[in-house]
Write a structure and sequence with these properties.
The protein is an alpha/beta fold. It has 6 helices and 7 strands. The longest helix is centred in the middle third of the chain and has 18 residues.
């Protein structure tokens, strides 16, 4: 694993080394199945893997011409996003240990679909892997206002998007998918 980029020149060099990567969007406590599928495809494609966490509590203020992104917090509690990234990074390190796979972790900021799309463009990604959302009223309301990350990625860029189910499938005789 390589460290998170700390400057624009480091990020540019790292992006060059990660051309044609598989990108996987991860959240804390997300099913390991999503990462396992992304790793499987990265191996099949002989591609590096980029594990991405998007901090939605920060937004992009501006981007330098060389691609370095400057951001500012929506909330003054900026430690929450850093802690989530640390958790995602630790889970990935544990799951990918001994896999022989070249991988790195990145924290992006802002809208998840737009941030992942932008990274995919920078590294000319081969595939984007995301998990389905949890079932529940809160998640249904969030998706109503923000939309599905997977659907927005599928409609706003040209790469294939693999959507991995997070939970047990809903049976065909269950009329409501989200029961809360």
């Amino acid at each position: 694993m390589t460290d998170q980029a700390s400057s624009s020149s480091d990020e540019s060099a790292q992006n060059a080394a990660l051309q044609k990567a598989v990108i996987v969007g991860m959240q804390p406590e997300q099913s390991s199945h999503v990462l396992e599928e992304a790793a499987r495809y990265a191996k099949l494609l002989s591609a590096p893997l980029i594990v991405v966490h998007v901090d939605v509590t920060r937004f992009v203020t501006y981007e330098d011409p060389d691609g370095y992104v400057h951001s500012a917090p929506i909330d003054l509690n900026v430690e929450a996003g850093a802690a989530e990234f640390d958790e995602v990074q630790a889970a990935a390190a544990s799951a990918l240990e001994g896999s022989g796979l070249e991988w790195t972790a990145r924290q992006l900021v802002g809208d998840p679909a737009l941030a992942i799309k932008q990274l995919a463009n920078k590294v000319d990604a081969r595939l984007i892997v995301v998990g389905t959302r949890k079932r529940g009223l809160g998640e249904s309301i969030r998706e109503f206002f923000t939309g599905s990350v997977a659907a927005r990625l599928a409609h706003r860029q040209h790469r294939s998007v693999l959507v991995v189910p997070l939970e047990e499938a809903v049976s065909d005789d269950q009329s409501e998918i989200w029961t809360e």
